[in-house]
Amino acid sequence: MRPHPSLIRKALPLVLCATLTACSGDDALYLIEPPAPAEHLPNRLGRVELREVVLPQYATAPEVTAQEPGGALRAKTDALWADAPGAAITRVLASQISQISGATAVAEPWPLSAPPDRRLEVRVAQILAGADGLFHLTGQYFVAPVMGAGQDVARTFAITVPLANSDPATVAAAQAQALQQLAAQIAALK
């Protein structure tokens, strides 16, 4: 005996919801949420377009990753970033640079009618919760004028933030703090 079509239409959403819930498991999603900036710097960047931040391969994974005592990086399969890491880190940096300095920092593509004054590129070499109890953020950033006069700027950065443990929420908070420090360095052109 076949079920009535209206019964199928009513039951289908419930079956789909149950299936999706079973597939999702107990995964937790983590945001990168820096606190409000404590310092305010002069605007040295003007209108700046931030290219998507270049991350090492391990940092592009959706899972929160931490380094084990032997040096191996282990993804926490039940702890996921709430957004694609490259896009999220780019948005956080642009927002923090704007808040700290008053610059108009926008992630690419540039949406405004007047072109940007400068282009900013950030290349991350290391971004991880280390086995040494520190969160590490290292790499280089480059600022170049888009049109007209101005100097190219190329700087390295090496930021560490203490970690109480490798819990994903602690890692996310440390990463947010490290990105806030990087935004301050870029805003000051240090």
UniProtKB/TrEMBL annotation:
Could you tell me which Pfam families the record lists for this protein? ABC_trans_aux
Protein keywords: Signal
Q: Which domain of life is it from?
A: Bacteria
> Where does the UniProt annotation place the signal sequence?
1-24
The segment(s) forming the ABC-type transport auxiliary lipoprotein component domain are: 30-187
Protein name, entry field: Membrane integrity-associated transporter subunit PqiC
